[in-house]
Each structure stands twice: as structure tokens, then as C-alpha cells.
Specification:
The complex is a heterodimer of chains A (about 850) and B (about 150). By secondary structure, chain A is of the alpha+beta class. Chain A has five domains: about 35 residues; about 200 residues, no CATH class; about 220 residues, Sandwich (Immunoglobulin-like), CATH 2.60.40.1730; about 130 residues; about 160 residues, von Willebrand factor, type A domain (Rossmann fold). Chain A is built from 18 helices and 40 strands. In chain A, strands 11-10-15-8-7-20-23-22 form an eight-stranded mixed beta sheet. In chain A, strands 27, 28, 29, 30, 31, 32 and 33 form a seven-stranded mixed beta sheet that branches. Chain A has a six-stranded mixed beta sheet with strand order 12-39-13-14-9-40. The longest helix of chain A has about 35 residues. Chain B has about 150 residues and is α+β, with helices and mostly antiparallel strands. The termini of chain B are far apart. The chains are: A alpha+beta (about 850), B alpha+beta (about 150). At the A-B interface, helix 1, strand 11, strand 12, helix 10 and helix 18 of A face helix 1, strand 1, strand 3, strand 4 and helix 2 of B.
Chain lengths: ~850, ~150
């Protein structure tokens, strides 16, 4: 008795607990819903329904704003409307949706009435979907089959697996043969175009979805005449919910003349075709010594008849210290504020939802950024101005200024979601990656163009100047000063702008540049290798060539890379050994281990290289393993040359793998292409204690390989240490000075105290011999002052911490990066710039989000790199 | 037995009621967020204003600076600079200068601060002019004020 009493009490407590929890949850939900208006509740309901029918497999959407066209956020390319319509309006809306290949969802009662003229009941549909066709009349069965497709009348489990187990590539309202189905409910491949979840829904979910909605048939084909049955339009309901695909069809414009075309797109409710929101990018660079100060102005406008949010993913140099952000609204300039990324994103969302014009700049990779501009009103313009400093590369007496213009399409390994997806225009969300770049088809042109001007003040006479990437005009103000402008004939932003100039003498005027402010002194030193290295000969080498044979390298890039390897193979010396490794989805190699560089073996190597083709994914990790995971020949200096465009999204994984496996190898990375991932290639070389070189598609691979061989045909200065003399130096980056190769100075930045002239002493080893040389410095040289040095130093510190974070998760490196970035007002992965114009609230909701599509880089094939 | 039953029924009734109340309270505690501007003026009397630096912070209420805009006179129309390090301590230090000849005198709006205000508490601001200077680099006496958006 006592036992049963106790059991009863326990039972009651459990029931009470469950009841309490349920009530608590429903109470929270209800009070939330109660605080909203009727329209808001509709949106909330629609949100929930939409997300549910998506099977929870894609990112959920949110619907906000008011009026007949609430804005949808999230990964959908559907327009969603919630409207209270009268009968005539409803018929008209329905007709429009059917005519435009759209798909409409209605409430259950209405749907059944609309589709079946009231003769088919919900029960009939459920029986049909459950495969219980014997329980419904033939007439009903025929009607349902005609509307839902004959492939449905099986048991639910089959329907589910058949509908989803196969081809899930169908887009919502996609043209042509739609593939996939809606909750297993309607698989009429000719009539319906649905958003297919990427995984099967459970039957219960299907039932719920089916009970909530029904689906109206879309137009069979845009080219066929449409005959909408009258009964379909014979509708009566007081509410209609419509989910229709945004019509992304667009005419292809004449692109014969570069830059003259305009990308045309159409938004729902738009009657005319109009260009996209990023109109123009203006770049102004000022080079002083070896530091560039660059201002980038992006001009957004709204050519549509409703408000928009513009989203643009764009590149900047991988070492850019972005420290200024200004939003320009008409004549007014609002300086953006650096904040923790999450906080900035939250402020932006709140401003956007409340109708304020706002802009947000976030960093996805050190060389990939996302610009968002919210609440751009029709016909209005918003400019965004970004300023950064960066240090120029300096090789063999040539400075190199690079401005990247487009993000290359990245490959992300299966299962990886933190990458950068490359998708076709209008295909938001299909890559499953955190960041997505939308690409134009090869025969499409964006109205977006670019202007660029660079003023060079070298401090010493400029002897030669060249731009291998673009057509430029070049005016000479004096022997030391030049102004370079991008020709208007070459203003399509589809490749890196590369400007090189050679100065008189072998060294820069001021190797040491300083800056002092209330935070103390900052310096940047260009450290040259000793001159006598050139007279010494190198040790035997073990040369490992690693060639990226993925789809993005197909065509010109792989041919360039093969030219480079061919040239390099021919320059090997008899006591060297070599190996050639190729990778795409997997890796394979010339032989099981490096082979001696005999004439016969080199012929074999050349033949192997000649036969390589670009195809498949970019599993660079396989290339890394193949190149570094074998025993090192202690007699030889192992040098690994990566030839790649670096179009991968999992950079951190690759860098971590290199850090773990490097050993005594040195990595020389060769970027091949018109717009390569310089961040990855620079980091590979830095982690690999080697160097990087870039081979443009219109450049001679032979010359670049020759200069590379010139460099490695002499020994490097290793084990470098520096005595800073009277400079009290702290926080030096890089903390470990890398090897110094001929023609390859390195940049060292740090903080210092002191103001006396001093002598810096550099020591190192060449082979087993010690080398020492001195550099006199004048800490009071006013001409060697640059106010960007503090930012350059802070950026270098962030870079060093971020590099460490790729292989060290034990310390709070993100926290340290955040602190430095906030203190110096710099962009990083953990900080963002936000600017809100809080002086004026725009009317209505924030409108639709328009992603700015970009062209694939010059020489890169769209069909092998972009997901459609 | 009777006692236990009464106790259980009480639990059945009371707990959900408390839960509902708690739910309501939880839901209504979301802070309100709004945006506002704060125009800042300097009155330098009959002297030219060529440079200034001021500090702003909220002594009550919760604000976040979301933008800094320039002033009305052409000499200060560009967005002034702020000290990002100071921003981390819930205050903002703003400064600007102009070396040109066309400089304002009297009262002029030198900047507009764009704010996000969190919660219902009306913020109280503390505004302090650190320095104002003329075209010769001399410190001048000036008064700084702000206008609260209604």
C-alpha cells in the first residue's frame, strides 16, 4: 500500500513537472506572440511553417517588416507575401504566381477548395498520401493523381525515400524539370517546382506539412501555353499566403565591349529590368617608401522601386590594416565605429529592422570581406569608404603593389562548412558555407566597374615601371614621383591589379621607418641579406614540385604551372633529386620517392608533367601529406614548391597541417592565376620559412622560375639574430627571423623606445660559417616617419596570433586578437566596423537583400568552379 | 492520504500559475533598443575655431556609439576621428582640426554622435571639452554643449 502510494506521488510529481514545463514554454511563446500585431503573428506563423517545410535542413528564415511584402532573411530565394486579400485580388495573385512558374502555399481549407473544387477532402488526400488508394473513389484518385502526380500513390515510407533519396538538386520554382518534391507529397515533376530539402522529411513531418498546406500547380513550362482551369481560380478565403520563387530570369546583355554591359536582374513586382546595386568602386593609393595608404570607395545605389539591402563579398590585400570606415549618405559622412564583431552585427540587425540606413563591414578571411548596406531607398545612393595601410612586397629591386579585385571561387572539402562557397547568381545558400560569393555566368557582365589611381613617391629615382595585369596610363611628376591610372578600357574587376616599379640602387632610401605617438614608438625595418651570399654556391637539393590539378586550374592556369615546372626541372643539377606530386580529389606522384636528377629521369618527369590535366576538387591536404610525409634526405636541402591558385575555403586546416609536418623542409609557394588566394600562398611560404612568387596568366613563367632559381642557387642566411643597439625593442614580428635569401629582404616590425642614432647588428650562419653585418639607423630622421606604422605593427601582431590559432587552441588567442584590434581600431575576424545613420528612419520594412554577383576571375572556368 | 492529495492538487494548480507568471515576466524583460543622434556644439566666441578635442560618456543609461558625423561648417564637415582605445572604456574621445583659413566663430555644430540607446532609462551625458585651439595653435576658451533629441 505504502509502495503504491509512493508510486502515485512520484507519478503525480512527474505529471506536474511535465505540465509545468509545457505551460511555461507555451506561455513564453504565447506572450511573445501576443506582443505582436496580427500581421506579425501571420509572419511568425509563416516563418515557422516555411522553416518546418524546409525540414529544418537549411538555415531558417525570418520574416520581418510590415506591409504586403515583408522581408525575408535567411537562405531563401523566394519572395514571401502575407496578405489579406479579397476574392478578386486573390485570384489575380494566384494567376500571377501560376503564370510566373511560382509556387503558392495556401492554408489547408483553401488549398483543398482551390485544387479540387471542394469534391476532394483532406481525408482523401491523407489516404492517398498514405498509399491507401483503395479507400478512396476512382474519381477522387484521378483528381489527386492529376494534381499531385502519379508517383505518389505508394506507402509513405517509399514516397519519402523516393522523393528525397535521389536527386535533390531541384530549386524552388526552378525552370525546366524540377527535381525533388515537397515532403514526399507532390512529386509531379512536370507540374511542380519545389524547394527540395537536402534530406528526407520524416513521414510525421510530411503529414504535418501536408495538413498545413497544399500546393498549387505551377506553369508546366514557360514556353508552353497556359491553361488555368477555372475551378482553380474559383477560390474563397480571407487569407492567402504565398511563397513564390523570385524570378531570377534575366536577359543576357551584349558583352562585346568590356565594361559597357550591365547585369540585369528583376525583382518581384518590378516591371522593368534594372542594374544591380554596386555601381562603381574607386581606388586611390598613395605609396610612400614601401608603405601604401589606400582608400577604396564602393558606390551603392538602389535602382529598384523598393528598399534593398546590398551585400557584397570582396577582397582586399591579405596584409591590409583596415583602420577607417566611413559611410557617405548624400553630403554627410558618418565615421564607422570598430566593435566586437558579434556586437556590431547585432547593432546592424537592429538598425536594419528599424529602418535606419546602416552599413557593416566584416572580415571572413584576412583577404575576404563582406560589406552590407541596409535600407537603401529607391533611387538613393550610399557610398562606403574604406582605408587601409599595407606594406609592399620588394623582390630583386622591384616593389610590387597589388590590389585584388575579385574573390576567386573556392573549393571546400566535403563536410566543411566554415569555408567560402562559390555559387551561381541567385542561388543563395546552396553551398552550405558560412560565406558565399555569387558569380556571374561567362556571358554576363556586371554594371559594376572600377577606377584606380596610384601616386608613387619612392623617395629615390624610379627606373622602371610595369603593370603586367592591366592597361594603365603613367605620368611622371619627377624622377621620384609617378602617377599611375587604370585605363577606362580595362575597368572590369575580374583580376588582381599588379603594379611593379624598380628604384635606383639596390636598397630603399630608408630601410627603417618609425612612428611615435602617446602609445610609444613603432618601427618597420626592411632587412636585406648580405651581399656576399651571391658569390657562394648552394648545397644539393631535394626538389618536390606539388601541382594543383583541380578544376579551377583547368585551362590557362595549369598550363602556366606546367611551364614553370618544366623550366625548373631543366635547371636541376645532377646531384639534386626531385619528385612531382599532383593533387585534386586525391594525390599521386611520379615515383615512390625522390629520384636523382639524371637526364633520363628529367625526361620522365617532363613527360609526367606534360600529361597532367586540371579536374576535380582541391584536396590540398592530400598534396601536403604527399609532399611532407616522407623521410628527409639529410644530405640535401629539401625544398617544396606548391603551384596552385589557392582556391580553397579550409585555409586554416592546411596551415595547421603544414605547421605539424614541416620539419626541416622549406616551402616556396607559387601562386598561378589572375586572382589567386594570396593569403594562403603567403602564409604557406611564411610557415614554410621560404618565399612566395606569383605567376600571372599573361606573364612569363620562365622569367619567374629563373629568378626563383637565381635565389635558391645561393645559400640562405640562417639562424638570424638581431642586436638592436640603443633601440629598446619589444614585441617584434616575426618573433623568429626567417632565413634570408638572395634578393629577398624581409620586413620586421616592432615597438621601441629611445631616440639616439644607433647601429643594428645582424648575425647569422651561411652553412657552418658565421656572418655579421651592421645597419646604421637614425631614429630622428623625420623623412622616415609614417603614421601608418602603428597600424601595420598591430596588424602584424593580429596576423601572428591568427597564425598561431591555426594550430594552438590552448590559449585565448581570439581574445588577444580582439583586444589588439579594438585598441588600434583595426578589422579582424573578431571585430567589425558599424555605421548607422540614426538621424532618419526610412519608411516601411527593410526590403529585400540583393547579393552583388561578381565575375569569375580571368582565366578561371565557371563550369568547373561554380555551384549552380 | 487526504493530506497528500490536497498537497498534490495544490502543486498541480500553483506551479503552472507561477510558471505562467514567470514566463510573462521573462518575455517582457527584453530591453528596448532605439537609435538617436546627439549634436555637439562649440561656442568659441569671436575667436576662430581650428581644432578641438572632447570626451563624451553616459553617466546613466546604456548607450553605444554607432557613428560619428562631421559638423555644419565646411572646416569641420568631415567625419572627425575618435580614439578607438578610449571607446573600449565606454566613452568616446573625438578630435578634429583644420589648417585652412575659413574657420568658424561663435556657436557651431562640430559633430553629431549617432547612438544606440538600450533600455528605457533616458541616458544622462557628460560632455567635456579637453581643448580648443585657433589657427595659430593657441588654446582658446570655448564652451561645449549638446542638444538632446526629443
Amino acid at each position: 500500500m505504502k509502495k503504491s502510494k509512493t508510486l502515485f506521488i512520484v507519478f503525480c510529481i512527474i505529471v506536474s513537472f511535465l505540465l509545468t514545463t509545457t505551460l511555461l514554454l507555451s506561455s513564453c511563446q504565447r506572450t511573445k506572440e501576443q506582443s505582436r500585431s496580427t500581421a506579425d503573428r501571420d509572419k511568425l506563423k509563416l516563418e515557422r511553417i516555411y522553416n518546418e517545410t524546409n525540414g529544418g535542413t537549411s538555415a531558417p528564415i525570418t520574416i520581418s517588416g510590415s506591409g504586403p511584402s515583408p522581408t525575408v532573411s535567411g537562405t531563401t530565394n523566394h519572395s514571401i507575401t502575407t496578405e489579406q486579400l479579397n476574392e478578386e485580388q486573390m485570384k489575380e495573385q494566384l494567376r500571377k504566381n501560376i503564370l510566373s512558374d511560382g509556387v503558392s502555399f495556401y492554408d489547408r481549407k483553401g488549398a483543398i477548395e482551390y485544387a479540387f473544387d471542394g469534391t476532394v477532402t483532406e481525408d482523401d488526400i491523407l489516404k492517398f498520401k498514405a498509399g491507401k488508394t483503395g479507400e478512396i473513389s476512382q474519381e477522387t484518385l484521378d483528381k489527386i493523381s492529376a494534381a499531385y502526380g502519379s508517383g505518389y500513390g505508394r506507402n509513405a515510407g517509399d514516397a519519402s525515400s523516393d522523393a528525397y533519396g535521389g536527386d535533390m538538386m531541384g530549386g524552388f520554382g526552378g525552370r525546366g524539370a524540377a527535381r525533388g518534391g515537397f515532403g514526399g507529397m507532390s512529386v509531379s515533376r512536370d507540374l511542380y517546382n519545389f524547394s527540395a530539402p537536402s534530406q528526407p522529411l520524416s513521414f510525421e513531418r510530411q503529414r504535418r506539412a501536408a495538413n498545413t498546406f497544399n500546393v498549387m500547380p505551377a506553369r508546366p513550362s514557360s514556353s508552353q501555353p497556359v491553361n488555368i482551369p477555372d475551378e482553380l481560380l474559383n477560390i474563397s478565403a480571407d487569407e492567402i499566403w504565398i511563397i513564390a520563387k523570385v524570378d531570377t530570369s534575366r536577359p543576357v546583355v551584349n558583352d562585346d565591349t568590356p565594361g559597357s554591359g550591365a547585369m540585369l536582374a528583376k525583382l518581384p513586382k518590378e516591371e522593368k529590368e534594372i542594374p544591380l546595386p554596386l555601381k562603381h568602386t574607386d581606388v586611390k593609393g598613395q605609396i610612400c617608401g614601401y608603405i601604401a595608404t589606400v582608400e577604396v570607395t564602393q558606390q551603392f545605389h538602389n535602382p529598384y522601386s523598393e528598399k534593398i539591402e546590398a551585400v557584397y563579398v570582396f577582397p582586399l590585400p591579405q596584409n591590409a590594416a583596415v583602420n577607417e570606415f566611413i559611410m557617405i549618405v548624400g553630403d554627410r559622412k558618418i565615421r564607422g565605429i570598430i566593435r566586437e564583431r558579434q556586437e556590431a552585427e547585432q547593432i546592424y540587425e537592429q538598425a536594419r529592422n528599424q529602418g535606419y540606413t546602416a552599413s557593416l563591414l566584416t572580415q571572413e578571411r584576412p583577404n575576404i570581406f563582406t560589406q552590407k548596406v541596409a535600407n537603401i531607398e529607391p533611387s538613393k545612393e550610399i557610398d562606403v569608404n574604406i582605408k587601409y595601410f599595407n606594406i609592399l612586397a620588394y623582390v630583386d629591386g622591384w616593389y610590387e603593389f597589388v590590389f585584388p579585385m575579385v574573390v576567386g571561387p573556392r573549393y571546400n572539402p566535403p563536410g566543411y562548412t566554415d569555408g567560402v562557397g562559390a555559387v551561381a547568381h541567385g542561388r543563395t545558400g546552396i553551398s552550405g558555407q558560412k560565406t558565399e560569393v555569387q558569380y556571374l555566368k561567362p556571358n554576363e557582365r556586371s554594371g559594376h566597374d572600377i577606377s584606380l589611381a596610384v601616386v608613387i613617391d619612392a623617395g629615390v629615382a624610379i627606373e622602371e615601371l610595369e603593370c603586367p595585369s592591366h592597361v594603365i596610363t603613367n605620368s611622371k611628376a619627377s624622377a621620384e614621383k609617378r602617377t599611375v591610372k587604370l585605363s577606362s578600357l580595362d575597368s572590369i574587376p575580374n583580376k588582381d591589379f599588379v603594379l611593379r616599379y624598380k628604384v635606383a640602387g639596390k636598397k630603399v632610401k630608408s630601410a627603417l621607418v618609425t612612428h611615435r605617438d602617446e602609445r610609444g614608438g613603432f618601427f618597420s625595418l626592411m632587412l636585406y641579406p648580405p651581399e656576399n651570399l651571391k658569390s657562394l654556391k648552394r648545397a644539393p637539393m631535394e626538389m618536390i614540385f606539388v601541382l594543383d590539378c583541380s578544376g579551377s586550374m583547368n585551362g590557362k592556369p595549369i598550363e602556366k604551372a606546367k611551364d614553370a615546372i618544366t623550366r625548373a626541372l631543366k635547371q636541376l643539377q645532377p646531384n639534386d633529386t626531385f619528385q612531382v606530386i599532383r593533387f585534386s580529389n586525391n594525390a599521386s606522384q611520379l615515383g615512390p620517392k625522390p629520384i636523382p636528377a639524371t637526364a633520363e629521369n628529367i625526361r620522365k618527369g617532363l613527360k609526367y608533367v606534360e600529361e597532367l590535366q586540371g579536374n576535380g576538387g582541391t584536396q590540398m591536404i592530400e598534396g601536403i601529406k604527399a609532399a611532407l610525409d616522407f623521410e628527409h634526405d639529410a644530405e640535401r636541402f629539401r625544398l617544396v614548391s606548391f603551384m596552385t591558385d589557392g582556391y580553397i575555403g579550409n585555409e586554416s586546416e592546411i596551415l595547421e597541417a603544414v605547421h605539424q609536418r614541416l620539419g626541416s623542409s622549406r616551402i616556396f609557394s607559387f601562386g598561378v592565376g589572375s586572382s589567386v588566394n594570396r593569403y594562403l600562398l603567403d602564409r604557406l611560404a611564411m610557415l614554410g620559412k621560404g618565399a612566395v612568387a606569383y605567376i600571372g596568366l599573361d606573364e612569363s613563367a620562365g622569367e619567374i622560375v629563373d629568378s626563383f632559381y637565381e635565389r635558391i642557387s645561393h645559400p640562405a642566411l640562417t639562424d638570424v639574430t638581431i642586436d638592436w643597439g640603443n633601440m629598446e625593442v619589444t614585441d617584434v614580428y616575426p618573433a623568429t627571423i626567417p632565413d634570408l635569401f638572395v634578393g629577398r629582404p624581409i620586413i620586421i616590425t616592432g615597438r621601441f623606445n629611445g631616440d639616439r642614432n644607433t647601429r643594428i647588428r645582424v648575425a647569422g650562419k651561411v652553412g657552418s660559417d658565421d656572418q655579421v653585418f651592421d645597419i646604421p639607423v637614425d631614429l630622428n630622421d623625420a623623412t622616415a616617419e609614417h603614421n601608418g606604422i602603428a597600424c601595420v605593427w598591430a596588424r602584424k601582431q593580429i596576423e601572428t596570433l591568427a597564425n598561431r590559432a591555426t594550430y594552438d587552441s590552448s590559449s585565448d588567442l581570439p581574445g588577444q586578437i580582439r583586444t589588439v584590434a579594438l585598441e588600434y581600431g583595426l578589422m579582424s575576424s573578431y571585430t567589425a566596423f558599424i555605421a548607422v545613420d540614426s538621424s532618419r528612419q526610412t519608411a516601411g520594412d527593410h526590403g529585400v537583400t540583393v547579393n552583388v554577383p561578381v565575375p569569375v576571375p580571368y582565366g578561371v572556368r565557371y563550369d568547373t568552379t561554380v555551384q549552380e | 492520504m487526504k493530506k497528500h492529495l490536497v498537497l498534490l492538487i495544490s502543486v498541480f494548480v500553483m506551479v503552472p500559475v507561477f510558471a505562467q507568471q514567470f514566463g510573462r515576466q521573462y518575455d517582457t524583460e527584453q530591453p528596448r533598443v532605439r537609435f538617436a543622434t546627439l549634436p555637439v556644439y562649440i561656442d568659441s566666441g569671436n575667436q576662430h575655431l581650428a581644432a578641438y578635442q572632447f570626451e563624451l560618456k553616459a553617466v546613466s543609461g546604456q548607450i553605444k556609439i554607432v557613428g560619428v558625423e562631421g559638423g555644419e561648417h565646411p572646416a569641420f564637415v568631415d567625419a572627425p576621428y575618435y580614439d578607438s582605445a578610449a571607446l573600449a572604456n565606454d566613452r568616446i574621445i573625438i578630435a578634429a582640426f583644420n589648417t585652412g583659413q575659413d574657420l568658424p566663430t561663435g556657436q557651431t555644430r562640430i559633430a553629431t554622435i549617432h547612438l544606440q540607446i538600450v533600455g528605457d532609462t533616458e541616458p544622462k551625458y557628460q560632455l567635456e571639452l579637453s581643448v580648443a585651439g585657433d589657427e595659430n595653435g593657441r588654446e582658446i576658451s570655448a564652451e561645449i554643449t549638446f542638444e538632446k533629441e526629443i
